[in-house]
Fold this sequence. Notes:
CATH class of the largest domain: Alpha Beta
Number of strands: 13
Helix content: 25-40%
Mean pLDDT: 97
Low-confidence stretches: none
Number of domains: 3
Strand order of the largest sheet: 11-10-9-12-13
Amino acid sequence: MKLTDDEKRMLNGQRGEPVARAMDYLVQFGDAFGAERFVDIVYAHYPAEMSIYRGTVEDAVEYADTGARVCIPTTASTLACDLDQWDQYGCPRPLYELQAQVVPAHRKMGILGTYTCTPQWLGFVPPKGSYIITVESSAIVYYNSVLGARTNRGGLFTRYSAVTGKYPLFGYLLDENRRGTHLFKLNLGSNDLRHDSDYSALGFHAGGIVGSEVPVFDALPPGTTQHNLLALGAALATSGSVTLFHAPGHTAEADSVEAAFAGNKPKETHTVGPAELKAVYDKLTTIAPDSNIDFVTLGCPHYTLEQLRYVADWLRANNARVHENVRFWVCTNRMTKQAATWEGITQTIESARGRVICDTCPVECHMRISTCKEFGLPTPQVNAMVTDSCKIARYVGDLIGCGTALRNREQCLNAAVRGRLD
């Protein structure tokens, strides 16, 4: 790689050993992918360093002790438990105590304790075209697609970029890799794409086709919201490993289908209608109709204040209370929960037997089969889960070992109250 004089000084140790070591890793990384040079990055979303993965917390503490410190705004991704109410929903004390060690480590490094999969909802919105580095698949897709910032899937190297402010120029940072590859023509009416779960189903369908390439969606409805686009991207990254999509009129970089392909022809063209969405709902529903359910979860990716308010308003309007046999989680970040508590939203949800969970989600917490075995907990922790997220529905079947049902948000709320699948 070609290094600037400043980058050479960093590599040679003139800014301290942690920076030199980080630059050495990044140079090797860039060389491996044929990058010619580094770019300056303006923001990083940092790896979760969760206690459900052996050795990751210890590694985080050891790295903080080297004196490494981030030099750009850096947020932190989700953890394996809600640090404030871990003891109220079955998290083992040793798991919490291990996880809590990352907080002082992150503070020592200057990392912000956001512990969320949706830092964009907290105001971390880099300019269009800027270079960033992020972990968490739904955030990566959103930053690339909706906001038009440029990031690859960060992984562990996010750590070194946050410390140096540098990242090798390759992958989705390059114009040629941001062109569309597959065209999806939507034959869907206004009633077919009404809910976040419908957009999630669309993403799940398309992601399974394109894999790691770049889908282009023609004619998303005019009323498509940020929440809808987030659900779409999260599901694209679940059934495939999509890092970027284009939806002209809704995403940042292409104002037409032609512009999205930048002169190339689509490798494939697919038409998506109601049958394709229904097939996703059917695939991710393994619970029989009218079966008993014991868990309902919303907030994957983490819910916003507006979405939390919707849940509270629905419960209040229906004078509803969660069924005694059901655990009902709404997952969000701790900053949003603070705002929700100030508005009385949290109290409304929890007075109805729901729980507003921060820092984590069912996929990443103690309910995983492997973690249950490690801590002597019974498995499965959940028998039948209802959710409006393809991401949750896809992963918990394998990781928690439960039955699943994909439903829209209102149906999820009804299931939580009835204790049965609608």
